[in-house]
């Protein structure tokens, strides 16, 4: 059986004209002779299916047939999915012969759809027929004529039941009344479904690609201890020249590389961007994966390679789960987009580049991605490539600092004195034999080296933005667990969700079994499900950086034809989220005498039980919502300083600089260390300070003595019987 890959590029050419030659160079040409069944009868044998519009070559979506001299073609073996998994196929396009209950209706028969923890609700993990016989069917209406080339099948997703289809037939129709069975020569074709397990997607290619409107899957055998249940995706090329319900028709504004990139192709694309924009880009590595693949980061800044005083550092991290591929491609698209728009003079991009140091990590788990990429997007299933090569879930692999902090607060006499920031990594975690992935160690070192202010972690498989804490107290499976900055985290999550074209659509269908529309498509991580050792929580508790997780789409590994639309869905969100790094207050904390920046100064905002620290140059950034704040700053060896800082509604930071004076004791130590002479004013200050301490201690001694005398008097009075 031929393996189908969604990531396989389309191959196109023109029968004449320079445009065709350009496409040959860009997409390549691979001829393949495939018989085509047209109109349920007449058989043709073209090498390629002609397509009407040159725009297809850029959209990677066929929209019609033509016989004109200058036309474009698509290999029949490359026909994309209709969109059951991506939800482009509407519920009303799917029917079935019967179903056990609403939660197992035909609308649930979508590839990779997930069920809830409990069976029996409205959101089970498959279509399941009411009866166990060979007359059951699952039908999809493509709305218009489609060249069907294959079917991908899975069994039921459930932690309680095992159900799958082992063999099936395929029927096709133009009117949903008269049906023709797919033939393999002179015999009815029998397609293989799942064996031994319901989860792996199984591809069945039609012996003869056939043009029709309707397609039916007709199960013939199933798991002996189960029932007829399936999830499916249909492969087919649209051949109707009139776009309609489930066509992808978008007007591309950005000429970007919309395809899936393996490791070598990703490196090549990043190199091409640096060559195109050498003045604002720089590629560096932060480490290697378990198999030795480098973790590449692209920096975008007007002064790449250097931290500029007062300029905040931002990062996007994608590909933590290797099979969640959309984030990887969006980050690569973002690199191209920012480079080209900067060159065009787009003022929004110019402002971002000149005022922000941006770091883009497209693949935190390159080993996992390569595993999923080799299988192809539809055939990777729900979990293949999710974990690192060692089998580690990287989003559970960071130090669990939450419970360290909560335990300390529980046992402390004064919980407010327990450190709420820069919580150290426990010693056991740093040992060589600790179960810590090299990818995780690399990212932790990266976080410690660069004073990041804001970040987002791009995932896939849902449509929601989650914010810390991800880990719940007392190991509850679900519990709202807010941080001290809950209001600002909710703002960050809302900024992305409200500008994402799919999340913001009130009529969209839920992905799997949770309706996040009720929460405006944002949710506290712990309220969704507990994730101890998450990158979000670690970032907040160990560094200054605020971070959220963005679940970008229902489909973890969308087909390449979906990528242009997904870019349009997320472009504004990606940009506006980056701009939030400029909210709140910022400034430089300097020594009064030397005017040098003070590193590791603690910045405390009254009413916010989470502090941050200044960077190596003394600069700091504190993300805050609009309001008036009392800000206190102190550092080792310095007297504390306080001032009021006002944050306005505009997305521009309020400048709040601080000048700190060293304590007299620290000044004395510095002078003595240099062998210098103590100035008279310092001598007087130290003498005055010692006198104050002496007076205070004398008063304390006198009060203690007076108390002792009173106790003795009372004791004598008791003895004398006067009390």
From TrEMBL:
Q: Which PROSITE patterns does the protein's record reference?
A: CARBOXYPEPT_ZN_1, CARBOXYPEPT_ZN_2, FA58C_2, FA58C_3, PEPTIDASE_M14
Residue ranges constituting the Peptidase M14 domain according to the UniProt record: 259-581
Instruction: Name the UniProt key words of this record, in alphabetical order.
Output: Carboxypeptidase, Disulfide bond, Glycoprotein, Hydrolase, Metal-binding, Metalloprotease, Protease, Secreted, Signal, Zinc
Q: F5/8 type C domain: which residues?
A: 77-237
**Which cofactors does this gene product need?**
Zn(2+)
SMART domains for this protein: FA58C (SM00231), Zn_pept (SM00631)
Localization, UniProt? Secreted
Entry similarity comment: Belongs to the peptidase M14 family.
Could you identify this protein by its name? Probable carboxypeptidase X1
Instruction: Write the gene name.
Output: cpxm1a
